[in-house]
Amino acid sequence: MSKTTKKAIEKLSTMKVNELQAKFAEVTGETTRSPNKTFLIRRITEALQAAKAKAPEADAHDAEVETAAQTEAAPTGEKLTKLDVPTLQARYLEVVGRSTGSDNKAYLIWKIREAQKGRIPVGPRKSAHREGVTFKVLPLRMESDLVDKLDEAWRRQGLHSRMDLFRKSLQAFLASAGEADVAAMLATADA
Fold first, then answer.
1. What spatial distance separates the first Cα and last Cα of the chain, rounded to whole Å?
2. pLDDT(74) > 80
């Protein structure tokens, strides 16, 4: 890593949230309203390191792939990056198969490309609601580094999602604590 990159990374910890948000937009090309300094510093650091690590050949390859994706994404030959937000939202509906309330241009472009590559599910979302069942959302706040490690763990364990990890962990804890009825309810909800 170059001295310039190291200095830029070291300077991040002294910056205010609004300065970090501006730096985030500068290095990632995305806007964010996140007030989480840890998250912003981590993402900016990753982007700076990735930019330095990229070889010139990779840049040429990325340009080819992006051009191909843009051509594929826009049947009329227009580039996604040249489209305005309402047009991108319409394209999102067309490609992803459901509407979006997002007005983040970078997100819309990314999501459209991911759908075209088959990396995300397309079509209407399946409803999690079941007749006669009321759901509650439980707030759970954790440090971003811990969440990253948890995500690595559930993938290594072959689980389907972060929620799958939480449910199975709660079920195992409750079963070992003698709460068999509640653990059984979690097993039923998991199925």
1. 48
2. no
